[in-house]
What does this fold into?
Amino acid sequence: MACLFIDGFDAYSVDADINRKWSSSYNLSTDWDLVAGRYGGSAIQLDNATAWMQRDVANAVTLIIGFDYQPSSILGDSILEISDASTIQLSLYQEADGTLSVKRGTTTILGTSSLALVDATYYHIELKVTIDNTTGAFELRVDGGSETSGTSQDTQESANAYANEIRVTGPATGSAFDIDNFYLLDDTGAECNDFLGVVQVQTLYPDGDTADSGFAPKSGSGPNDYKQVDEASVDDDTSYIYSDVVGAKSLFDYTSLSPEVSSVHAAQMVGVLRRESTEATPNVALIMKSGATEGASADIVTTDTYDYSRHILHLNPDTAAAFTPAEVNAMTAGIEVKS
It folds into this structure.
């Protein structure tokens, strides 16, 4: 599996958008804002300790989490919690002096950075953890350099040597921080199974139709299908494409990566999907096509409410090698009705 989750925070406008992409959140209605992203687009800003957003994963012994982080008047509080259900196995704190500490639970310090972060400055933070009572391990990197690490550690607070929840937690009242370019990996597979270094999550949007245009645009909205799905902020029933025909497929051209991108770790397609409540539950697949070869997701069972579905490819399906930026720019992507 390797790459489990990616978020560039570029397609949010309301609270519901967060809960569609993350597994759950709390108290974000008044305690988050979209702000300018590190490399363009958007970042999310949290400004209260009661606010959090959480991504659930299958039980994993080893996880790697990376994100861009910009503090503002941090008073000393947690940034990240890695948990088994409600039990926090490990947490990442920014201390009052600006240093970062890795803790078992929320109190036992396993290691502290020598670097002290300063306000209004972006840093790329990466944390790799292995959960175990005796053979646990951790390493914290900032901007690609190792700050603190340990092996043969007790990194386990619950009865289980794994984690299944990753929570970004808001800072103490009166503080704020920005998060951007978030990724979550495990150590399985041959790709994206270790530190990625400083990365960007670039969000590309449909900007043209292709010969694969089996879905229809919303009634009365015109012949250009891509214009029904090209908005940066999801607008639900305001614009959409639809089909109830098995085998119907629509693929779109997309905007291009920024010229400075030199390599690609993974491509993630995100679809916001729902079915008509009066229809039988249909299965669909998300598709990324490179050259003549399609890389399709497993079948996705839709419901009668809009929800985000994701499809991640580590390798180009046409070459079985890492994507090049040119291949991403030439790729088409979309959706197919399966059954």
